[in-house]
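Two folds, back to back.
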Amino acid sequence: MPSSAELTRERILACAAREFLDKGFTKANLRDIARNTEVTTGAIYRHFQSKEGLFQQLIQPAFDVIATARTVAAEADEAYPATDMLSAAAIQRSLDGVMQVLGAMHEQAVAFKLLLCCADGSPYEDTMEHIVDSYTDSYEAYADHLIELGIATYRPGRMELHMLARAFIES
């Protein structure tokens, strides 16, 4: 059975998630979170160092999914030689990895919504752009590789790949 402190911490996290979802990081207020949790602001500070620390705790599951996605992608890249990257097995492995990541994102929907929609004013407000830039870099490398293999003849520009990455991430 969870201790009283653990139960209080979970209540604080639940109320804080609602507060950040309703108001965004900038307008969220620790006093309101404390009042809705029926604890003092001091109790919040016993569990979390700051408003940023509380927010970070709520979005950490999203970062964990992002790290897993990078690992899955790296494993898929290593599993097949470049000449086999369009084989049925390579495509299926890639699709399986995407579905695994999408499932994890769905399970952590609140963390992703907080990170991608409610982080303005926090240290994480540029996270979406960092993710899009990372995907754009990957798309550029993939396009270059397809051209090197003679599979593709057209190399989209960075802006086109950036738009594709943004559309993928935002969907």
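---
second:
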Amino acid sequence: MIQEFDPATTDIALLTNPRWNPDEFLREILYQLSHEECYSERAQIVHRLHEVLYENFAAGKNTLVLIDEGQLMQDPAVLEELRLVLNYQLNDAFLVSLLIVGQSVLGQQIRDFPPLDQRVVTPGHLKPLSVEGVREYVEHRLEVGRAQGADFNRECARTGRSVLGGLFPAR
């Protein structure tokens, strides 16, 4: 998915290990946006992040913060920091978009934190794949992996769906 974004128009901070305190969270966003300065004071971190977001906006670039394994964020202070990051905006434009991806418990975690839940514009939940969806997914993965002569039929898909419940591990 990330490869489909044009780096000339979108700057992406991909955060894959969301077990931070609030300052580490902000530093990681800056690092992922290629701003590796070391700031010791929280105010410096916050100001620099705002500058980077505004610079991207002024250059015509969107900024996306993508958090994978979002269900691992356990610290309410980090959830509050997420909410505050969404405050970075102008009168007529948001300076950052936030996409949080995680296991099904993530939805409940966000609902349990109303200040952040109120900011969620488009919640979503992926459902398990059907037997046909499993077959199509595996065929696609085999094609991408350039498997030659692989035969993955409907019965294999049915077995895979019953064993995995239609859910596939990330790796």
